[in-house]
Design brief:
This protein is of the alpha/beta class. The protein has 27 helices and 27 strands. It folds into four domains: 155 residues, Rossmann fold, CATH 3.40.50.2300; 143 residues, Beta-Lactamase (2-Layer Sandwich), CATH 3.30.450; 143 residues, 2-Layer Sandwich (Alpha-Beta Plaits); 209 residues, Alpha-Beta Barrel (TIM Barrel), CATH 3.20.20.450. Strands 19-20-22-23-24-25-26-27 form an eight-stranded mixed β-barrel, surrounded by five helices. Strands 2-3-1-4-5-6 form a six-stranded mixed sheet, with helices on both faces. α12 packs across α13. It is elongated.
Length: 749
C-alpha cells in the first residue's frame, strides 16, 4: 500500500479508507483550532484530516488549511491569521523547502505564536539540532512514527503551548495598550478633558460598538451619604445630547439605579446588558463610567481591565491635584476671586488686545481694616472680606474682572464707563451685615487708564498701586488716578533711595554742628548734630529731601544709629579739648525711637564712646509724642534713668494735648522756626512763640528757639523769657573743624 502505515493497533489511517473522505476547505472561524497542513503528498493531507477531524481539544474542534507546496503555503500564510499549528513536510520542491518556509514564517511574516511540527518520510533528511533551535520548531516526527495517538498527542501539546503563548502575547499587547492609554490620559488637563479621554480609551480598548458616558458627583449630603446629583461631563456619540445634564434628566431609572449602586459600593458593576466602572480619588470627586454593553470577560481580561482602571484612578488623583494646584496658583482660597497672578495674566492679555482702549484698572483698599480685624477677630475679618467680595461680584461680576490682590485690597478691571470712582465708592455707602453685626466700611481707590500704560501688566499694576498710595496719603476714602508725573516722582524716589544707601555704605554722609547759645551772654552752651549729604559729583542734597526717603526705606534706623554714635564720639573729643560742659543734641526719628533695639543701641553708643549721659540731649518731634503715648512714656523713663536729657522738637506743629504733655518726662521745648519767623518788624507779634514760652515755664521746662536770624527776633524772644536759641544770627551749621575755630572765639560757662 502506498499509504501511511504502521503496525500499531492505534494506526487507523488506511488508503482505502481515504477515498470516501472529502478534503476540508479553508475554514476560518475563531471557534476552532486552525491547523495548516503543508505537504506535497495529498495522501498525507487526507490521512491527517481523517485522523484528527473528529477530535476536540480544550472543547474546541479542529479546522484545516491545506497547502501542497512551499510556494502555495507562502500565498496562504500571507492572508491568513490565527493559525495554531503548522504540520510541515521537510522535503518538498527542494530538500530544504520546509526549513526555508520556517524561516519565512518566523522572520519575514513575524508569526511567533504559531507552533510548527516538522514531519518527514525520509529520516536522512531530518533537520539538524541547530536548525530546530534557531527556527523555533515545536516538534519533529518521522511520518512512520506518527500513529493516530501520537499525532493527537503532539497536536494537543502544541495547541496547549499555542494557547499559553497567545495568552501571554494578548496580555502583553493589552498592557502595551494600557500603558499607551494611561500615558495619553496623564497628559490631559482638567476634569472634563480627562473624563472624555477615559471614555474614548475604554471604548477603544474594548474594540466594539460600545456607547457610554461619564458622570461625576456634584453634590454629596455628608450627613446621610446620599448623592443628590450626578452630572454627565463626557459622552460618546450615542449619549452626546445629554452632555452637562443631570442623570435624573437624561437617563431612565434602571441606569440611575446601576450608577448609584456602583457609587455606594465604590466598585465596578458588571451586568448582562450594561457595565458601570467606578473611579474614586483623594479629592472625593468620583468618576463613574456607564457603558451600554455587558462585558463578558474571562478572568485575565477582567484583571487587565482592573489594571487599566487602577491607572485611571491614579490619573484622576493627578488631575484633581493639578486642578487644586491650579486653583491655589490662580485663585484666592478665601473669596474664590482671582489672585494677583491671575489678574496679571488677564491684564497682559488685555494690554495686548484692542480692549486696552477704554479699559481701567483700579485697586480698592479697605480703610482701617487692620484695626477692624484686631478688634473683632480674624475670623470675623475673613467673613467681612467675603462680604465685600460678594458685593463686588454682584455689582461688577458680569462685565468686569475681579481679584483679591492683598490682605484687604481688591482689584477691579473693566470699561471706563463701569469702573468709575463714584460707582466703586457707592458700593461702600451701605453697611455690611456680617455675623449679626452691622459694619460700615470705607475704601480708598487708585486707578489707571490702560492707555496711559507703556509697559506690561506688572507695570500697569505698579502704576495703580502708586495712585492708591497717593490717594491714601492725600485723599483717604477718596481716589486718585495715576499720572505720568507720579511715575517720574516714584522713579526719582527709588533712584534717590539707592543713591542714599550707597552714600551711607561708602561714608559719604557727614555731620555738621549748629551751636546753641545763651542769648543773654552770647555764650555757646552746646550744639545740635545735623546730618548732611554731599554726592560724589559735589552736589549737596538737602536733608528735607533725603531724610523722608531714609524714613520711607527704613534706612533711617541705621543712619540714626550712626549719627548718635558719631555725635557721642565728637562730644568726648570736645570735652578732651576743654569744653567740659558742652551739650550735644541729637535728633531721633520715629522709626528709630520705636525700634525694639533702640535702648540697646543707646547703651552701646554711651559705652563705646564713654560720653557722659548728662551731656547728651535727644530731640524727638511732637508728632512722635502723639503716635504712641504709652510706648513714649515707657521709653522716656528708661532714657531718663540713664541721665540723658530729652527735648521736644518743632513744638507747636503737632497739635498735642496738654494732658499728654504733662505726662511726658521731658526737659526742654524747642519753638519751631515757623513761629519764630512770625516775629517781624511790620507784622506779627510772635504770639504763638510767647505762648510756648509761657507753657514751658509753667511746666518747669527749658525753652529754646530755632531759626533765629535777626536781632529783633532774639530781643523779642528774650522779652518773652526765652533765653536759649540757635540760628543764623549766631552761626550756621559747621563742620567739626570750623566748630573748633568758632568755639575759640566764645567762652563757655
Amino acid at each position: 500500500m502506498n499509504a501511511l502505515t504502521h503496525s500499531s493497533e492505534d494506526d487507523l489511517i488506511f488508503l482505502d479508507e481515504l477515498e470516501a473522505y472529502e478534503t476540508s476547505p479553508i475554514v476560518k472561524t475563531s471557534s476552532t483550532w486552525r491547523i495548516m497542513i503543508i505537504d506535497d503528498d495529498p495522501d498525507v493531507h487526507s490521512a491527517t484530516t481523517f485522523a484528527l477531524g473528529s477530535l476536540e481539544i480544550q472543547s474546541r474542534a479542529l479546522s484545516f488549511l491545506h497547502a501542497y507546496s512551499a510556494a502555495e503555503a507562502r500565498d496562504i500564510l500571507e492572508n491568513e491569521s490565527d493559525i495554531a499549528i503548522i504540520l510541515l513536510d521537510v522535503v518538498m520542491e527542494q530538500e530544504d523547502a520546509g526549513l526555508q518556509l520556517v524561516s519565512y514564517v518566523r522572520k519575514t511574516l513575524g508569526m511567533a505564536d504559531v507552533r510548527i511540527i516538522l514531519r518527514t518520510g525520509q529520516p536522512g533528511y531530518a533537520p539538524e539540532i541547530d536548525a530546530i533551535r534557531d527556527y523555533d520548531i515545536n516538534d519533529y516526527k518521522t511520518k512512520s512514527e506518527l500513529t493516530r495517538t501520537k499525532l493527537y498527542t503532539a497536536v494537543t501539546s502544541a495547541i496547549r503551548s499555542y494557547e499559553q503563548i497567545c495568552a501571554i502575547s494578548t496580555s502583553r499587547r493589552a498592557l502595551e495598550l494600557i500603558i499607551k492609554a494611561s500615558t495619553e490620559l496623564l497628559a490631559l488637563q482638567g476634569l472634563q478633558n480627562f473624563a472624555t479621554g477615559v471614555l474614548q480609551q475604554i471604548i477603544s480598548l474594548l474594540a466594539n460598538q460600545t456607547e457610554g458616558f461619564v458622570c461625576t458627583k456634584q453634590v454629596l449630603d455628608e450627613t446621610t451619604n446620599e448623592i443628590n446629583e450626578l452630572t454627565i461631563i463626557a459622552a460618546s456619540n450615542g449619549f452626546s445630547d445629554y452632555l452637562n445634564q443631570s442623570i435624573n434628566e437624561a437617563t431612565n431609572a434602571t441606569i440611575q439605579a446601576s450608577l448609584h449602586q456602583a457609587i455606594q459600593a465604590r466598585h465596578h458593576l458588571y451586568q448582562s446588558e450594561s457595565t458601570v466602572l467606578y473611579f474614586g480619588n483623594i479629592k472625593n470627586q468620583d468618576l463613574t463610567v456607564y457603558l451600554n454593553t455587558g462585558l463578558h470577560l474571562n478572568e485575565l481580561d477582567k484583571r487587565l481591565l482592573e489594571v487599566f482602571c487602577s491607572n485611571i484612578s491614579v490619573g484622576l488623583d493627578n488631575v484633581m491635584l493639578t486642578s487644586s494646584l491650579h486653583n491655589y496658583a490662580f485663585y484666592d482660597p478665601l473669596t474664590g476671586l482671582s489672585n494677583r497672578l491671575k489678574l496679571l495674566q488677564t491684564l497682559n492679555e488685555t494690554l495686548d488686545s484692542p480692549l486696552k482702549q477704554g479699559t481701567v484698572l483700579s485697586l480698592i483698599d479697605i480703610d482701617h481694616f487692620a484695626e477692624t480685624n484686631d478688634a473683632l477677630g480674624h475670623q470675623f475679618g475673613d467673613l467681612l472680606l467675603c462680604a465685600v467680595a460678594q458685593r463686588l461680584v454682584n455689582i461688577f461680576g458680569n462685565d468686569c474682572q475681579l481679584a483679591r490682590v492683598g490682605s484687604d485690597t481688591f482689584a477691579l478691571m473693566g470699561k471706563e464707563t463701569r469702573v468709575s470712582p463714584d460707582a466703586i465708592l457707592a458700593l461702600f455707602s451701605l453697611p455690611f451685615d456680617v455675623d449679626n453685626q452691622v459694619v460700615q466700611l470705607s475704601a480708598t481707590i487708585g486707578l489707571v487708564k490702560l492707555m496711559d500704560c507703556d509697559g506690561d501688566g506688572s507695570e500697569a499694576f505698579k502704576n495703580t498701586n502708586i495712585a492708591l498710595k497717593r490717594a491714601k496719603t492725600h485723599h483717604r476714602s477718596g481716589y486718585a488716578y495715576f499720572t505720568r508725573d507720579m511715575g517720574v516722582e516714584i522713579r526719582e524716589r527709588v533712584r534717590m533711595m539707592h543713591k542714599l544707601r550707597s552714600a551711607f555704605e561708602n561714608e559719604h554722609l557727614f555731620l555738621v554742628f549748629q551751636p546753641q547759645v545763651d542769648m543773654r551772654t552770647g555764650q555757646a552752651l552746646g550744639a545740635e548734630a545735623l546730618i548732611r549729604w554731599k554726592t560724589e559729583e559735589g552736589e549737596f542734597i538737602p536733608p528735607d529731601q533725603f531724610i523722608p526717603i531714609a524714613e520711607y526705606s527704613g534706612l533711617i534706623v541705621n543712619i540714626g544709629e550712626w549719627v548718635l554714635r558719631s555725635a557721642c564720639f565728637e562730644l568726648v573729643h570736645l570735652r578732651s579739648c576743654g569744653y567740659t560742659n558742652f551739650q550735644m543734641a541729637v535728633n531721633v526719628s520715629q522709626a528709630q525711637f520705636s525700634h525694639p533695639l533702640f535702648m540697646q543701641t543707646l547703651h552701646r553708643a554711651l559705652h563705646d564712646s564713654k560720653a557722659p549721659p548728662d551731656c547728651i540731649e535727644l530731640e524727638i518731634t511732637e508728632s512722635m509724642a502723639m503716635e504712641d503715648p504709652d510706648l513714649l512714656i515707657k521709653t522716656l523713663h528708661q532714657i531718663k534713668q540713664l541721665g540723658i536729657r530729652v527735648s521736644i522738637d518743632d513744638f507747636g506743629t503737632g497739635f498735642s494735648s496738654l494732658s499728654h504733655l504733662q505726662k511726658l518726662d521731658v526737659d526742654k521745648l524747642k519753638i519751631d522756626r515757623a513761629f519764630v519767623n512770625e516775629i517781624k518788624d511790620s507784622s506779627g507779634d510772635g504770639s504763638i512763640a510767647k505762648m510756648v514760652v509761657q507753657l514751658g515755664q509753667s511746666l518747669n521746662m527749658e525753652i529754646i528757639a530755632e531759626g533765629v536770624e535777626t536781632t529783633m527776633q532774639a530781643e523779642t524772644l528774650l522779652s518773652f523769657g526765652c533765653h536759649l536759641a540757635q540760628g543764623y544770627l549766631y552761626s550756621r551749621p559747621m563742620a567739626k573743624e570750623d566748630l573748633y575755630a568758632w568755639l575759640k572765639t566764645k567762652s563757655l560757662p
